Amino acid sequence: MSDEGAETMREEARAAREALLEASVAVCGEPDLDAVAERVGHAVAEAEPAAVRGVFAQRFMAMLRDGYFWPSVPILSNAGRRDGGQLAACFVLESGDSLDSIYDTLRRAARIQQGSGGVGIDLSRLRPRGAAIRRSGGVSPGPVPFAELTAHSARINALAGRREGAHLVVLADTHPDVLAFVEAARKVEALRGAGLALGVSDALLEAARTGAPYALGDPRGEPAGHVQGRVLLHTIAEAICETGNPTLLFLDAIAADNPAPHLGPIRASNPCGEQPLLPGESCVLGSLALPAFADRDGQVDLAALEGAAGLAVRFLDDVVEVNAFPDADCEAAGRRTRKIGIGVMGFADLLLLRGEVYGSPESEATASCVMACIERAAHAASQALAKERGAYPAFRGPGPERRNASLLAIAPTGTLRLLAACNGRGDASRRHSSLDRSLAARLAR
Predict the structure, then answer these.
(1) What residues have CB less than 8 Å from 322, skipping those under 6 apart?
(2) Mind telling me the catalytic residues?
(3) What is the pLDDT of residue 211?
(4) d(CA 190, CA 120)
(5) d(CA 275, CA 265)
(6) Residue 355 has what pLDDT?
(7) pLDDT digits (tens, 9 = 90+) for 24-57
(8) For FRET with 367, which of 123, 339, 375, 428 sits at 20 to 30 Å CA-CA?
(9) Where do the structural domains in the chain lie, given as residue ranges?
(10) What are the angstrom distances between the C-alpha of 436 and each of 55, 267, 296?
């Protein structure tokens, strides 16, 4: 392709990005990304002490304008708005086993959706289908109809925010209605607006491996019988192949990485699964655009990447401070652990520049190098913030005090990667054998 053709492609991409910017993140009157960066940078820097507020506002703005770091869409669209704004992208709620709790959870989820957030809702505490309801004299419908109700609520409220939120309904694999929940995944229309996820234990996987029965447990502590582990896992696999649901949350692996186990077990995650959370917790997200740190040959400036990752930690910790939480319980839980999630995007573009095929030993080495740099910088920055501002309130160790219970999360970047002109896949380099690498370099400028 000629230089003229490449320039035409860049102009078309630039026009598409400007249209997306206006539709998804710009506040009325903001003509370009520089204006968005100015609004967001100043709003987030309000968390800084007055003496250095201006300095960090400028640093935040420069990081955004130069395309090194892209906060999540709720931050870009809501920070600095006159009516305040919910800046956290992901939440988890847990419903109790009562009508009041179920509908209160729906109300809270609707508020989160209104602020462009996604929410995972754990229904594992609900009594099973057919269980007696003492107050009404009737019987419980079980968690499946309430999962459908959650999806229906999400559809109704789809226009409540500037952008659709996302809902994920979670159930433990020990719940007596687990098979009905898995079968419900096939009700594609009834569940449009929400995904299903199953909290899976190592014990279920072992029962499936050995052909042993798997014990179920009524949330109220009553006997609930058994299911054949192999049959349950086969049913799960069939439903996933047919519909993509339910997704699986491997609870024992999540427990092993729980940064604050003394607060209780984590049983759910946000809708995209990148951030397991306790009930009421939230997480603020952002992604480093890897091509912005690379030259035309794909050589990464690790010093620049480390500096941006450290500044991103401070930025997101400030976001926690200025965030408008949807309710008091979410605020208490969010400030207790101050979870943030720094991720990456544009890895496919980086591999194209380097001439590496996704999945090759070279690409794995590149990924390890990049993520080790980011992880090292993020931990160092959070530890420095703990000395400056104090550790997150629920910190009990191990290791040095840090400001944030969680630091890294590789979130999906649908809108962000379009704004940043990054490839949305990690494995684009599988298909680049006929691609002119000089074109890839020109388009990455």
Answers:
(1) 43, 44, 46, 47, 79, 87
(2) 270, 272, 274
(3) 95
(4) 18
(5) 14
(6) 96
(7) 787 877 888 999 999 999 999 999 999 999 999 9
(8) 339
(9) 3-85+283-443, 90-269
(10) 42, 47, 13
**CA 147 – CA 170 distance, rounded (Å):** 9
Query: In this predicted structure, what is the pLDDT of residue 160?
Result: 57
For 90-269, CATH number out of 2.40.50.140, 3.55.50.30, 3.20.70.20, 3.40.50.1110 equals 3.20.70.20
Measured distance CA(328)–CA(318) in Å, rounded: 19
Direct distance between the N- and C-terminal alpha carbons of the chain, in angstroms, rounded to an integer: 16
Counting as low any pLDDT under 50, the low residues of the chain are 429-445
pLDDT at position 1, please? Answer: 56
Residue position matching structure tokens 């990667």:
417
For 237-288, the pLDDT digits (tens) are 999 999 999 999 999 999 999 999 999 999 999 999 999 999 999 999 999 9
User: pTM for this structure?
Assistant: 0.90
- Half-sphere exposure for 20 (CA within 13 Å, toward CB): 16
Three-class HEC string of 386-409? HHHHCCCCCCCCCCCCCCCCCCEC
Three-state SS annotation for the chain: CCHHHHHHHHHHHHHHHHHHHHHHCCCCCCCCHHHHHHHHHHHHHHHCCHHHHHHHHHHHHHHHHCCCEEECHHHHHHCCCCCCCCCCCEEEEECCCCHHHHHHHHHHHHHHHHCCCEEEEECCCCCCCCCECCCCCCECCCHHHHHHHHHHHHHHHHHCCCCCCEEEEEEECCCCCHHHHHHHCCCCCCCCCEEEEEEECHHHHHHHHHCCEEEEECCCCCEEEEEEHHHHHHHHHHHHHHHCCCEEEEHHHHHHCCCCHHHCCCCEECCCCCCEECCCCEEEEEEEEHHHHECCCCCECHHHHHHHHHHHHHHHHHHHHHCCCCCHHHHHHHHHHCCEEEEEECHHHHHHHHCCCCCCHHHHHHHHHHHHHHHHHHHHHHHHHHHHHCCCCCCCCCCCCCCCCCCECCCCCHHHHHHCCCCCCCCHHHHCCCCCHHHHHHHCC
Angle between helix 33-44 and helix 302-322 axes, rounded to 10 deg: 60
User: Residue 168 and residue 276: Cα distance in Å, rounded?
Assistant: 12
For the chain, what's the residue count?
A: 445
